[in-house]
Amino acid sequence: MARGNAIRIIRQVTLGIVAAAFLVGTWLTQARVTGWQETLWVTIYPVVAGEQNMTSDYVDNLSAREFAAIRKFVEREAKRYGVPLADPVRIDIDAPTGMPPDPPTDGNPLAVMLWSLQLRWWAWRETGDRPGPEPDVKLFVAFHDPVNGVALPHSLGMKKSRIGIAHVFASRQMQGSNNVVIAHELLHILGATDKYGPGNLPVFPDGFAEPERQPIYPQRYAEIMGGRIPIDQETAEIPASLRQTRIGPTTAAEINWPATNHPPGT
Length: 266
Fold this sequence. Notes:
Helix content is 35%, strand content 16%. The protein is an alpha/beta fold and 266 residues long. It has 2 domains: 37-191, 3-Layer(aba) Sandwich (Collagenase (Catalytic Domain)); 197-255, no CATH class. The strands form 3 sheets. The chain has a 5-stranded mixed beta sheet with strand order 2-1-3-5-4. The chain starts with a helix and ends in a 12-residue tail after the last helix.
């Protein structure tokens, strides 16, 4: 009986040590990723989510060039905030993967936790044996058939696992807005929170790119985590590209940028 208790205690202590090491490792990695002392390596893994051959052909012909706007966006905004890093982010593209597991729809905390573990295992299985260094961030971008009026599944980005899933359309005409979605999820992974409310309307002031603008409407840009360009109190438009987006001071602070260096009105 005593021996059994001792074994059980040893197991519990061992599990506690492993869990503590995992948590410390996760914290140190996250601190390094958002420390902005070195270039953040982001790898995009395309996913064929549509059924049409044109979607598969579109994915097969993708290159890092289609996502260069994301790198330029982060570089431009980092410069505005005085981030002392010439190349804050690098965007690579890898070979396509299969579809990631669907998240639970009922919001049950236990189901969400199990799905998160399942997603991590799936991501490791899909990409773990690929050549090259492990990226800081993995973004699985699911390309869907470009059908008018069809709502895409909800995109998401997870800070702890540094994994994101973005749902976009397989259309060159929509590549600009696709990159807005991908950049939004990338910033989620880095610690930024959503800044829109009911009806997908940006919340004032944090969801506005220029909250000090007079008159306040219409805004010229979308705050990236607000998601849309406020036109009036009831209307907001989806930005056509990252050229129409900015990172606001609250979002900058969340991703560990020196928000006090923000030049107002720019």
